[in-house]
Specification:
- It is a single chain.
- The chain folds into two domains: 97 residues, Recoverin, domain 1 (Orthogonal Bundle); 91 residues, EF-hand (Recoverin, domain 1, Orthogonal Bundle), CATH 1.10.238.10.
- The chain is mainly α.
- The longest helix has 25 residues.
- Helices cover 62% and strands 3% of the residues.
- The two termini are 33 Å apart.
- The mean pLDDT is 81.
- Strands 1-2 form a two-stranded antiparallel ribbon.
- One of its GO terms (molecular function) is calcium ion binding.
Length: 206
């Protein structure tokens, strides 16, 4: 919905305080982009936000993110209200972490992306799911040919050793086959390359 100049100023001021990593001009630009994205979205949200499809298309076009599982999980981390709609607050505050977050903020964000069921741990099954999807990325409506299927099966069989190596790197101290945020944080602070160990969920430096 159209917003008055006063309403826009109040919104921008509020988001500049809450998002922290953007200045007022940047926030205003992001709010304008949000309005453009809302116009492209389905009407079910009555102008309050935009849907998963628009979100995925935007991240794909802007940042080259293509992994379906990762994109769905990124959407879920932005959609804090869990209503299938990205609001202007979720949009700006989410991008603040995605683009300019501190290491602490990015660790929490990446962990949330990888924690597929939201139980506070990254389980063996979740690791396998994320690693499998990073091996084979293709349109959802196409079935891989038998040769590719066989290759994926072979790699997944070999992944048991990969899994144990990752657990070693991430220091699963109690050997319960799942990682807490504390395990993840400790490992990433020691080796920052482990931040995206289960799949690319942050834009590259470009």
């Amino acid at each position: 919905a159209a917003m008055s100049k006063k309403g826009l100023k109040l919104l921008v001021d509020s988001l500049t305080r809450s998002a922290k990593h953007f200045n007022k001009n940047e926030v205003e630009c992001l709010v304008n982009l949000f309005d453009t994205l809302v116009a492209r979205s389905s009407s079910q949200f009555a102008g309050a936000g935009f849907d998963r499809t628009v979100f995925r298309d935007t991240l794909h076009n802007a940042f080259g993110m293509t992994d379906d599982v990762v994109l769905d999980r990124v959407f879920s981390t932005f959609d804090r209200g869990n209503n299938g709609c990205i609001t202007v607050v979720e949009w700006v505050e989410g991008l603040a972490v995605l683009l300019r977050g501190t290491l602490e903020e990015k660790m929490k964000y990446c962990f949330a992306v990888y924690d597929l069921n939201g139980d506070g741990y990254i389980s063996r099954e979740e690791m396998f799911q994320m690693l499998k999807n990073s091996l084979l990325i293709q349109p959802a409506d196409e079935e891989p040919d038998e040769g590719v299927k066989d290759l994926v099966d072979l790699v997944l069989k070999k992944m048991a050793s990969t899994y144990l190596f990752i657990l070693f790197l991430l220091q699963d101290y109690d050997h319960d086959g799942k990682l807490s945020f504390a395990d993840f944080e400790k490992a990433v602070r020691e080796e920052k390359l482990l931040l995206e160990v289960f799949g690319p969920c942050l834009p590259d430096i470009k």
